[in-house]
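[job 0412] stage=complex_fold ligand=magnesium ion status=START
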Amino acid sequence: MAVVKTKCRLDENTRALGGIFQEHGHRLYLVGGAVRDYLMGIDNDDWDFATDARPDEVMSMFPHHVIPTGLQHGTVTVRFRRQSYEVTTFRSEGAYSDSRHPDSVTFVRSLESDLERRDFTINAFAADALDGTILDYHDGRGDLRRRLVRAIGDPQERFGEDALRMLRACRFAARLDFDIERDTFEAIRRNSSSIVKVSAERIREELYKTLMSDNAVKGIELMRTSGLLDHILPELVACVGVEQGGLHSMDVYHHCLATLRCACTHRYPPMVRLAALLHDIGKPGCRKEHDGGYTFYGHDKEGARMVDALMRRLKASNDERELVTRLVREHMFNYTSQWSDGALRRFVARVSDALEPLIQLRIADALAISPDASLDSLWEMERRIEEIRKRNDALGIRDLAVDGHDLMALGIPAGPRLGRTLSALLDAVMDDPSLNRRETLLEMAGRLQA
Ligand code: ATP
Ligand code: MG
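[job 0412] stage=complex_fold status=DONE, emitting structure tokens
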């Protein structure tokens, strides 16, 4: 057993909690990512604890302050001095017959067995809650120094137990800017197709977490070179080698990666990063040769259709699916100073909530094509939209100075004609906001019926 020289700095409350476990003849350890990140000098506020005490023993130590959050996995939440501590009983896992769930979970008394079932050496540190002494049974410290993600034990076996670990390896390599150790990577390459056995939800969460690391591009590239991406995002793999010509020096795949890189540099939110990665996946199916170059007409719509299906496959929420689909569908807007205010208002009305992320996507897209691309016209567009917003110009039927009841009072029956009349009024007001007055609109509505 290796005791790491550095001790983990633990706050007073955590040490006091460790003391209570000790008084009851048990031990409490901080485990997992928090110790790894501590050793690397990275902040991590996701703290997991492990103990040799069984859940019922923990519950009897804190009779009124334990919430049984995940009893079947041995996890309880202890409320102590106004804080919550997730405490999991040491476990070892039985055989995995389906590459995703252990057939059984057994509570054990030894820390060593608990650390053995963990995925990577850098995730298998434990810090004693009493005094912060860090224990390292798998040379995690050496791998931190070598900057390697290495499976504990036989990687082939470990990925056979839980195929998600292959994606986790790529995620940690991206997040920490590490490499994946050779045998571990080789085992991912050999087992990549078994990722399909993992639930869509778990895959999606790993993908999102990978996208949120500063070095997301590295994670995606590791997924591609190991073969995982073929099974998770085959649409993206189909972009590899699809040359574009024109302003583009890169093939479609590498342009998508470059767009993701810009989105990460700007710290854009997760769905913008996903849209950046996927925005051109319609291109391979839309490429036509033309005058010695290529065109990609309709790739925005085709891409949106593909993204909608892809997000359903990943079981993303409706909000996420709709946003990413809309971003991909609208990413080709071609703003110029010549756009009338009416055209701009229609655009704002159409993209509605997606406006800010859409502009972020375009910034990333433009900078990916050329790092010194001029963004002046995007800034100008933002400025003009800001003015439209400040003036409260009507952008939807709700904003009109009349409503359906007013029109019915004019004798227009409820139904399609009423809808058409309101749309016609909105159309006029979009071009000329000064028309948005009750009298004017009622008069126009009357004329429209004549
Ligand atoms: P993060 O900082 O991103 O939360 P983490 O290392 O804490 O990183 P978690 O997903 O929160 O990662 O998992 C906590 C710990 O549980 C890991 O450090 C690892 O020891 C263990 N673990 C999690 N998932 C697995 C898995 N699929 N197989 C084996 N061990 C796992
Ligand atoms: Mg964690």
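DSSP finds 23 helices and 14 strands in the chain.
[job 0412] exit 0
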